Amino acid sequence: MKDKSMLMIPGPTPVPESVLRALGTHPIGHRSGEFSQIFARVTQGLKWLHQTKNDVLILASSGTGAMEAGMINFLSPGDRVLVGSNGKFGERWAEVALAYGLDVQEVKSPWGTALNPDDFKAALEADTAKTIKAVVITHSETSTGVLNDLEAINAQVKAHGALIIVDAVTSLGAVSVPVDAWGLDVVGSGSQKGYMMPPGLGFVSVSAQAWEAYKTAKLPKFYLDLGKYRKDAGKNTTPFTPPVNLFFALDAALEMMQAEGLDNIFARHARLTQATRAAIKALNLALYAPDDAASPAITAVAPAGIDAEKIRSIMKKRFDIALAGGQDHLKGQVFRIGHLGFVCDRDILAAIAGLEASLRELGYEAFAPGAGVAAAAKAISA
Description:
The protein has helices at 17-23, 33-50, 63-72, 88-99, 117-126, 150-160, 179-182, 208-214, 226-233, 244-260, 262-282, 308-319, 345-361, 371-381; strands at 6-8, 55-59, 80-85, 103-108, 132-138, 140-141, 146-147, 163-167, 186-190, 202-206, 286-287, 298-302, 321-325, 335-338. The protein is α/β, with parallel strands linked by helices.
């Protein structure tokens, strides 16, 4: 049915009606006083969301652009960096670092498992000469549904003295990322995830320690030069033409998030994660990530003996529910259920009901009818 599509993927995520309406507002001049007022308001909202007094800068980019900016502004060619890699996006940050001529050392963990903070401790303690300049961590590894222990890893980074650069693209707005309390230096995120917006804006928070590193960083940059954004943000404007209507959307989305409150946002995401995982267990399907490292944004499912792409196909064709597929070597082996951003209890129940019907159509009957929905409902009402 037209206009009934339901996004249950890790991004783009569903967009509220009020945010969509804001997008449809007539553009205004980006050098106008009216735009400066909006800029000031969203900047304060972003600091609230990041739980920081640091700069939070806004780019016209994806989350990848925010992360690239977060790396190149604070490092120089040949600098040694430690990159946590336990999925598609950890691997991506290693590739970005290599592309800029950085000396990359990876701390690895198999896909579907969390990075071990002790591995970072060992690597950092071995660096007695303090040659490691930065550690790059993916907080919520979207490709596998794993939430890495950012707080524990960051403690090791702080003890060493290196910068920590965090991919919080699918964790910010879904789980607490207390930038100031944890002393996080650089945190990148993107609008199409927990912000409940379309793609197009990237966000980078920057600490005082990172700005000190910026003064001597020599990697090439122009459009992504965060110093320019910081200077103009002080005047409630931007160095380059921004996507004005996305600022309207951001303003509306942050207003919704502040009305819900951080604690309620995080509790909702935790509840949806628990409900989804309970349903998958009740359907006797394998979860790709363990319970103690479950991402609040995405649940990856490994349906042994069933092509995950067939499940996704039926969900889309029969019920107009979009699930995400596996990436790289996981294609066809896993499907991923997004529960990030503008997602509620009803969405989870509908998706699980559609999944049950899709599994039946494929001949999978290793569960009692309604078991998944019942398990999800029980978790939601707990």
